[in-house]
Amino acid sequence: MSIPHTFQVIVGLAGEEATPSPVTAPSGFFTVNSSGNGAYAKIRLTVDNNGQWYVNDLSTGSGSANFSSGSQGTWLNTGSASDYDIKIDFADGTSPDNVWLNLGTDRVWEIQMEEDSLADDGDLSIRNASTLTVLATSTITLEAEHTP
Asked: pLDDT of the chain along its 148 residues, tens only?
């Protein structure tokens, strides 16, 4: 006769906590709208070397945005910004596209539309500049829509 056995598997050491990531990838859907002759819709994403990231509405004419311009959050949790690289692989090629850039310098991506609209989805990655290990990924969408 077989007697049922119960097994418990314990993974990790007692009291051991997970190490938080030194970086957090910016993410979200950000859109600006503008209208008027001679005006344009313009949106800017900045990931700065002080550990913050911003989305700004730089549109002219009348319009609106689905966010408040300015700081959206912190990407650098520990360490120095120059220890990390960033790239965004945008579907429609918003520049700079799919190129690793060191975060020791502020990095900026912009879309400006004068007669139409563009929504560009990007796969954002942040890696350790020395080991080249990707530490954080996300999706970010920038959209600018203008009606003359």
From this structure: 444 443 333 444 445 566 778 999 999 999 999 999 889 999 999 999 999 999 999 999 999 999 998 889 999 999 999 999 999 999 887 888 899 999 999 999 999 998 888 999 999 999 999 999 999 999 999 999 998 8
Q: In what order do the strands lie in the sheet with 70-74?
A: 70-74, 52-57, 41-47, 107-113
Domain assignment of residue 56, yes or no:
yes
* Residue carrying structure tokens 């520049």: 95
Residue 7 in domain: no
Please indicate, yes or no, if residue 88 is contained in any of the structural domains.
Answer: yes
pTM for this prediction: 0.84
What letter represents residue 23's amino acid?
Answer: V
Residue 80 lies in a domain: yes
Nearest to 73 by CA among 146, 24, 11, 36: 24
Number of domains into which the chain is organized: 1
For 73-107, b where at least 16 C-beta lie within 10 A, e where not — what string? eebbeeeebebbbbbbebeeebeeeeeeeebeeeb
